[in-house]
Amino acid sequence: TWETDPPAAVSQVTVRDALNQALDEELERDERVFLLGEEVAQYDGAYKISRGLWKKYGDKRVIDTPISEMGFAGIAVGAAMAGLRPVCEFMTFNFSMQAIDQVINSAAKTCYMSAGSIAVPIVFRGPNGASAGVAAQHSQCFAAWYGHCPGLKVVSPWSSEDAKGLLKAAIRDDNPVVMLESELLYGVPFEMSEQAQSKEFVIPIGKAKIERQGTHVTLVAHSRPVGHCVEAAAVLSKEGVECEVINLRTIRPMDIETVEASVVKTNHLVTVEGGWPQFGVGAEICARIMEGPAFNYLDAPAVRVTGADVPMPYAKILEDNSIPQVKDIVFAVKKALNM
Q: Which of 73, 182, 222, 232 has its C-alpha lying 20 to 30 A from 213's C-alpha?
């Protein structure tokens, strides 16, 4: 017999399976939801995110499209305006540039331009940022690009729980949501609580999560670099430095209050992202902290850790040196703390 309550059931679920679960549950819950994109149906998805869904829901709900991002994104936006709730998959967000007019000019601006009378409840999702060995045209991060635009909500999950909860929230939201996933995380298993695996589990858009409590320095990241920050925090802990790690989860609207509260406590800030430095997510966080009440609590300048300011090289050793590694985060923390 248990002396206390039995521990909650926790199981290991990959990010891929968490996304699949979210899509399955939302397709079942609301018949207006449908999925479209390249290879999402008969092939089970280029990254197997939509595995089994075409067999289960059929041609009307899971639709293979031609290789024409502008075309199928436009169809999806029109469907959303007409009252459906499309989930539009880009095989990679680099290809969303073919459809950026649909995403920004058609989806993001319509609610405002129609004085609120036309909602566009659509989700644009797919892998974003650096993958492995796919060179410059398939490797950039679009968090800053889409985060720049009013009218969009932009989410960037790290763990399986993030992926499931944010995708469900995005599908239920009446605004266009851009969901930036990491291809390199798809096969990574994370612990998921029983609650996170329930059909009603959603994560509110616009709320960051503190992944690790700390007192000496605040680390803020989104997507895959959150894991690097957690690793760096473990390394630094052995040297007596306790990092507070914040998983942004949402790029727009940004939860700057959670970051401010942490900076007030730790007096130091390091931002980490895979994207380019200029006008990046880290640059925005630093500016918001400088303009707000937490600035007076900083004991040193904030430090940004970003991808290199170059198109992604193809050679593996150059690629590794173009993306933030754990050692880069450790170095940045020591610089911020003047160690």
A: 182
